[in-house]
Amino acid sequence: MKRNYLFEILAFTIIRVLSAMVILVLLAILVFIIVRGASVISWEFLTEMPQEGMTKGGILPAIIGTLSLVAVSIVWAFPVGVMSAIFMNEYMQQGWYKRLIRMMTNNLAGIPSIVFGLFGMSLFVNDLKFGDSILAGSLTLGILTLPVIIRTTEEALVSVDQTFREASLALGATRLQTITKVILPSAIPNILTGLILSVGRVSGETAPILFTVAAYFLPKLPSSLFDQVMALPYHLYVITTSGTNIEESRPMAYGTALVLLIIVLSVNGLAYSVKYYYQKSTSKN
Fold first, then answer.
1. How distant is the alpha carbon of residue 242 from its chain centre?
2. 284, pLDDT greater than 70
């Protein structure tokens, strides 16, 4: 008995140490980026066009381009992913076909992002004639995030107690009414987790947009979905590897990284706030 107690203490101590290490690594990254990039952040840096091979000026086109790609990709991928998960979990019967779809979805999540970029270039840029554009890049990024949205949504739906479904159907509600009025309100807080993960992945991807939308140097703002744009991940890559003067452009790289980090954390914070609101509303009801 004493031996088991000591083993339990040791196990929990190891878990606490590992958890603390993860937090420390995250804090170290945040502090490193903030310390290096804070001195670069200014109103001009956020609102001006890039100049002199992106070693001077601002990053406004890259900010707008990144926000455009995130918004358009999530606008179509999130509803499609949620509806696909609802169909799989609420309408499909258990069987080999459902297992096959789930297996293919999991495999899709493990495909390297550069493969999605090549696929997007072949289909959207060349075959569908969208060209290097926000539309082509967003469709590619949306496909990239679909597996995450589908799996997290499906897990959220599974977590809803089966008795809720049975009670709703017993009261005469249709299956669609049960889904929209009972299941989705209960599952929304966890469904938003998929949205948070998707936004984080979309905003930080470089390979897919490299083939479908990203421009090396484009000091203007987009005017339509068929325009090419700059994006913060690709901009960060370019100024750290292909600049005319790497040492001179390095402060801009840290500033760009900090802006990208702030955008991701802000969107995640907003999603978590909405998730907390729904959780609170659900608990009251």
1. 27
2. no
